[in-house]
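It is worth pausing here to work through a concrete case rather than discussing structure prediction in the abstract. The textbook approach is simple: state the sequence, then state the predicted structure, then interpret. We follow exactly that order.
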Amino acid sequence: MITARAAATFEPVGRSVAAARTFVRDTLQGWGFPDIIDDAVVLTSELVTNAVVHAGTAAEVLCTRAEGGVCVEVADRYPDRELPLQSPAGRLGGVDREGGRGLLLCAALASRWGVEYTSTRKKVWFRLDLPDRPAGTRSAGPALPAEALPLADPRVRVAVIQIDRTGCITFWNDDAHELFGFTADQITGKPLTDLAAWPHTPGTSTGIAEALRLSRWEGSYGIRGADGRVIPVYASHLRVRDAEGAPSTVCLLVRDEERAVLQSPQRAPAADAATAERGTATDPFEVFIGSPAPDDLDGLLQRTVERARDMLDGDSAYLLLATDDETELEVRASTGLPSARQRFARVPVEAGTGRYGSARMPAVHDDLSAVPGAVPLLANTGMRSVVTVPLKVEGRLTGSLGVAAESPRRYGNEEALRLQFAADRIALAVESARLGELERLRRGSLSFLVEASDLLAGTLDRDQTLALMAQMTVPTLATWCAVYTIADQSSDPELSYVLHEDEDRIDGLKNLLSKVPPPDPVNSPGARVWSAPSEAAHSAALRSSLRSLGLADASGHIPGPGTSLATAAAVGGETVVLPLVARNRVIGMLTLGKPSDDHFRQEILELAEDLSRRAALALDNARLYSERTAISQSLQRSLLPPELPHVPGVEVEVIYRAAGEGNEVGGDFYDLFPIRDGAYGFAIGDVCGTGPEAAAVTGLARHALRLLAREGFGGPAVLERLNAAILDEGARSRFLTLLYGELWPQHDGSAVLKVVCAGHPLPLRLRQDGSVEAAAEPQPLLGVMEDLELYEQTVTLDPGDVLLCVTDGVTERREGTRMLGDDGLADVLTTCTGLTAGAVAARVLRAVERFAAEPASDDMAILAMRVPERQPPRQDD
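Step two, the predicted structure:
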């Protein structure tokens, strides 16, 4: 007959093997079977390894206690496994085989063992019989030398006190008189609470009165003696009843340093036993949680729920931790429940439908089927009865511990007091571990946010900002991420970027989200749950399953292709939406999701909220930069000639380079335009400075030149009027060097030019014989003096001649102390004899770029005009 059972499920990860070993060890220690622990742990370790490592499935471990022994079952859900042959044990496996050693060990160590198969699972079980013990022996310690024995007074006194059902003292022996100074007459009839200095946790009601109602209790407290001093004692309480059924409690007390007289041997590892033998006091926390205590929060919480379940012989247990404001509880550990579905789930604390109303005080539910929703965590789990107690530190709610059973009416007030007593002992340790974890998370969060801020500040490109937002959240904060953007207040949210930690899931996720209406752009801080993706995924997966089975609807139509089951699992967990708010406007939403049955931790949501604020500002800055860059480039393009006209009999080539990021036009400019029939105007100039200010003067100069030239003014008059217009700009004016000319192609194949060079680098003329000479004389630049007297010079380009005009970005190209200069430019032009205008301009540009390794820091314009050589007339045959 089975007298106790304990079960746990372990996920298919490597650390589950160690967790399973701990589970079996703790279970058997709690049942008082230390003799078979080592064999059970070895067998469990091998069988769980086969399940979670080799088979890759979750392992279900069930321990059952029966008369004379313990049975342990390990089940997995990997049915595609060959059946073991009924052969001698030696053929089950070998030391050199990767698998099969678990069955070999079962055959060697277990009293009985077996393998059971079903269509969906495989179970390996083994039984270990308890060894025979000598009659009368419960536990024994080794023989010790006298100096290693605990210290005690020559006369060890054991106070025997009996307490009635009201808590008053009815019996007080002579040793109690000697220990505490009160005679039996002085103390009989008084409540024990008047003497006891109970070390209960502040803010809880559990004390000596509650402990006296427990069936058994053992531990330390203080008794206030006749002289007023508090004497530390170690006590053992036993609840009894007389022949008439009246309950009372018998208390045995000794001085605390003599606790070995009463203290029950602890089922603890050898190190703890040795500590007890040396007389060191045992911490009540260690008594409950075991030693050594886990040094991480998750391990401590898991050990707590397992010990609580075993202590009350329950089917499941769980522990929830409160948020900082104590308004919600977050599931952090459970056993006997579908932990993968419940981990990090949150429930409100206040009373109401679907809320956790029994969080702030101990509570017992005899039958949950009569009060559905009383404990939301246990909905649809098959649990009927539950006892819950709060974890409090200095009166503040820090968590809740619960133990549940599948049968109704399993628990009462006595179990609640026992569980509350345990909760009081572990509350401080849990809170300390939680604060340590929060500190580590906050440090990591600060580093994460600093790095995120640096990355977001490093770009002003909108698409790159969207990609960074998603890449920083996946997989650090979420399994998948989607970013919605809103162009303006009248526009609907648009799906702009989708990312999943598994790249194969991105297309399916994007297809799914494109069919789901986007979340509402609500300007409210914090994350809100969005259920639409999960619902759509499950619905689409169902349609796909029906289609794969060939099922049609009533009209005979087979549902169209939907999202695969893999995509549904990828987005089937919790999905939250965080608004992207910048400058008091919602510019988008950051959507984070988890896979099926998974939840976000509160700390992760808070970190995501901080990230969303930074990302929103970066995205809005990128948007503003893109808009302003587009406007700037559009205005700058308007300053360039739309296209160069075709000049009969003259080759023309222009190369233009503006300095500065994002600039299409700077302080250098060029133009070539028809003036009247047969005449063309051309110009190349350089405004002092670069950037938008210089570009403004560029626009003024280019448009003024065209207007004045087409009004019939000659070159000097055009430049004099332009000079006056520049001076009229006042403080916004800029110096301007300008080469302006008029071009007349001639019938004989030559071209006549009239040029004015106002402070600009002189134009160079390349003749057919390779000689290079200046084609004009220098005159004053524009924008300095009001009265200018300019003149024009006439130049005739013969067939094969080239006129090269450049800005000072070419001639002043530097590397260190060297400068290209007018002479260097002339040397380059000398090598261009016979080349077309385009080839001449390209060779000059190449020479400028190769002159220095650093990129050019000044605007640059090159205008080359060439009169082609006349072809000899064709001779008719």
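Step three, interpretation. The radius of gyration is 45 Å. Residues 141 and 448 are 54 Å apart (CA to CA).
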